[in-house]
Design goal:
With 466 residues, the protein is of the alpha/beta class. It has three domains: 184 residues, FAD/NAD(P)-binding domain (3-Layer(bba) Sandwich), CATH 3.50.50; 118 residues, FAD/NAD(P)-binding domain; 117 residues, FAD/NAD(P)-binding domain, CATH 3.50.50. Helix content is 26%, strand content 28%. The structure holds flavin-adenine dinucleotide. The site of flavin-adenine dinucleotide has 34 residues, from helix 1, helix 2, strand 4, helix 5 and helix 7. Flavin-adenine dinucleotide binds next to helix 1, helix 2, strand 4, helix 5 and helix 7.
C-alpha cells in the first residue's frame, strides 16, 4: 500500500475494459481509502473484445459469456465506482479537471481529480468515403457494434458481404461471416492479406482463405458506396490501379486499422506518437506526473528497435493497466515494452509473429538474413501431424534473432512464445539451437522446429559474407 491510510485521493480511470479495469483493481489493492471512479463511454465494461467475432459466428453461443465481471462486482467487491455512458471529451491538467458528456445529453459536466489513468483504447480508422453511415455498414470493435451486426444479419439474412481490409480483424470478420453462410469479398489495399506478415507466411493463409470460397481483391480500395432510399448499401465501387469496378453487396464491414482514442488530450502537453497513441515513460507516466496511461491508447517501447511503437494487443493492455495502477498509487514499476507478439486463429490455421519484419530490419540497418522452412508439428508416425512454416529473421553480425513468423494447424502459438522469450532475452540462433525443448511424438519432433530453424540459420550464415 502506498497511500497513507488517512488520505483520500480521487483517482479517475478513463475506459472500462482490459487496461482500465486492471489499473482500477491494482490501484484499489494499493489504496483502500482512495475514491476510484471508472468512466466508460459505452454501455458495457469487462468484455472480451477478442471473442466478438466468435459471437457473430455463434461459436460463443451466449451473449453473457462475452463478459468477465459486471459493474456491480466492481462496486461491491472492489469499491470501484463505474459510470457507464460517460464519455470524456476534454481535459484540463492545470486545473485537474475533466469534461464529460453523458450519452443522450448535450450538457458538458466537469469533474475534478487528483490522479488519472487514461485507458481509452483505440477505435477503427474512419475511411473518407461518404455514405458509410448506412444501416448495413459496420465496424467490429465493441459489444455495441457486434450486437448491431448480429441483429442486422438475423433480420435481413444477407447473402454477400464486403470486408474492407484484410488484416487480423478483417480475416476474423471474414471467417465469422463465412461460417454463417455469407459469401465474402475482401477488399485489400496492399499486395496481400495479412500484409504485416512476410509473404512466405501470408501467402499460405491467402490460398486457404480463397480455397474456402472467399474472394480477395488485392491492391484495391473502397472508392464509393451506392445506397438505396432506405439508407442501405446495395453496391460498392472498388478502385484498382485507376480502374473502377462495381460489386453488389448486402453488408459492408470496415476493418482498416485503428487509431488511439486520444482526441480529448488535444491542447494538453501529453505527447502523441504513431496512430495518435500517447507517449509515456517506461513507468507509463505522461507529461503530467499525476496522469498515467495504459493499453491500446498508448505507445509501447518496441524491445527490438528500442523505439516507441503502436502494438495494440490485449496481452500488452492487461500488463500495462496493472503497472499504471501500481504507479498511480505511488509505485515504481516499469513496463519493459513489447516484442510485438501476436497470434490469430482463423481458417484452421494459427498464424503468429514476434519481433520485427525483414523490411523493418533492413530499414533499421541490421544485416538481416531471412530463412523460411517447413517442419512437422509433431512426429510423422502419429496421426494429425501438420506442416508448420517458419520464417526467421536474424542479424548476421550479432546472430541475434530479430523476428519470427509462423503458420500451421497446431503448435504455432507455443513456439512463437518460445521465440518471444528468446528475443526478449537477446538470445542468439546458437543459444536457441541448443535450447532444451520438450519432446514426445504426439507434441513435437526430437529436434523441435524452434531448434531446427536456428540450426538452419547457423548453416545459412556460415555461407554468407556481408
Ligand atoms: C475483433 C477484435 C479481436 C481482437 N482479438 C485479439 C486477440 O485475439 N488477441 C489480442 O491480444 N488482442 C486482440 N484484439 C485487441 C484487443 O481487444 C485490445 O488490444 C484490447 O481490448 C485493448 O484493451 P484496452 O483496455 O487498452 O482498450 P479497449 O478494450 O478498447 O477499452 C477501452 C475502453 O475505453 C472506452 N473509451 C474510449 N474512449 C473513451 C472516452 N473518451 N471516455 C470514456 N471511455 C472511453 C471504450 O468504450 C472502451 O470500453 C482484438 C480486437 C478486436 C477489435
Amino acid at each position: 500500500m502506498y497511500f497513507n491510510s488517512s488520505e483520500k485521493e480521487k483517482i479517475i480511470i478513463i475506459g472500462g475494459n482490459v487496461s482500465g479495469l486492471a489499473a482500477a483493481s491494482q490501484a484499489r489493492r494499493n489504496t483502500p481509502n482512495a475514491e476510484i471512479i471508472v468512466l466508460e463511454s459505452g454501455e458495457y465494461i469487462s468484455y472480451g473484445t477478442c471473442a466478438l467475432p466468435y459471437f457473430i459466428s455463434g461459436i460463443v453461443d451466449d451473449f453473457n459469456k462475452l463478459f468477465t465481471y459486471s459493474p456491480e462486482f466492481f462496486e461491491k467487491e472492489r469499491n470501484i465506482r463505474i459510470l457507464l455512458n460517460n464519455k470524456v471529451v476534454g481535459l484540463n491538467p492545470q486545473k485537474r479537471e475533466i469534461f464529460i458528456q453523458t450519452r443522450g445529453s448535450n450538457e458538458l459536466k466537469n469533474i475534478g481529480y487528483d490522479k488519472m489513468v487514461i485507458c481509452s483504447g483505440s477505435s477503427p480508422v474512419n475511411l473518407q468515403v461518404s455514405g458509410l453511415d448506412a444501416k448495413n455498414s459496420f465496424y467490429l470493435r465493441n459489444v455495441g457494434d457486434t450486437l448491431s451486426i448480429k441483429n442486422y444479419i438475423n433480420k435481413n439474412n444477407p447473402k454477400k458481404a464486403s470486408v474492407i481490409g484484410g488484416g487480423s480483424i478483417g480475416i476474423l470478420a471474414t471467417e465469422a461471416l463465412s461460417k454463417i453462410g455469407i459469401k465474402v469479398t475482401i477488399i485489400e489495399k496492399g499486395q496481400s492479406i495479412f500484409n504485416d506478415f512476410e509473404n512466405e507466411i501470408s501467402s499460405i493463409l491467402y490460398k486457404k482463405v480463397k480455397l474456402d470460397g472467399t474472394e480477395i481483391l488485392n491492391n484495391s480500395s473502397l472508392d464509393a458506396v451506392l445506397k438505396d432510399d432506405n439508407n442501405i448499401i446495395r453496391s460498392i465501387s472498388i478502385k484498382n490501379e485507376g480502374r473502377l469496378d462495381n460489386i453488389s453487396t448486402d453488408l459492408v464491414m470496415l476493418c482498416t486499422g485503428a487509431n488511439a482514442n486520444t482526441d480529448f488530450v488535444e491542447g494538453t502537453s501529453i505527447e502523441l506518437g504513431k496512430n495518435k497513441a500517447i507517449k509515456t515513460s517506461l513507468k507509463l507516466q505522461t507529461a503530467y506526473s499525476n496522469i498515467f496511461a495504459a493499453g491500446d491508447c498508448c505507445c509501447v517501447k518496441n524491445m527490438v528497435t528500442g523505439k516507441y511503437d503502436f502494438i495494440p494487443t490485449a496481452n500488452n493492455a492487461a500488463k500495462m493497466g496493472r503497472i499504471a495502477g501500481e504507479n498511480v498509487t505511488g509505485g515504481n514499476s516499469v513496463f519493459p515494452g513489447s516484442v510485438g507478439t501476436k497470434v490469430d486463429k482463423a481458417f484452421d490455421f494459427e498464424i503468429a509473429r514476434t519481433g520485427i519484419s525483414f523490411k523493418d530490419a533492413i530499414e533499421l540497418q541490421f544485416n538481416a538474413v531471412k530463412i523460411t522452412e517447413n517442419y512437422n508439428s509433431h512426429a510423422k508416425a502419429m496421426p494429425g501431424a501438420a506442416t508448420i512454416t517458419v520464417t526467421l529473421i536474424v542479424d548476421f553480425n550479432s546472430r541475434k534473432i530479430l523476428g519470427v513468423q509462423m503458420i500451421g494447424k497446431e503448435g504455432v502459438a507455443k513456439r512463437i512464445d518460445t521465440f518471444a522469450a528468446a528475443i526478449t532475452a537477446n538470445m542468439t540462433i546458437d543459444d536457441v539451437y541448443m535450447l532444451d525443448l520438450s519432446y514426445s511424438p504426439g507434441t513435437s519432433t526430437v529436434w523441435d522446429p524452434v531448434n531446427k530453424i536456428c540450426g538452419r540459420a547457423i548453416l545459412e550464415l556460415a555461407k554468407k559474407r556481408f
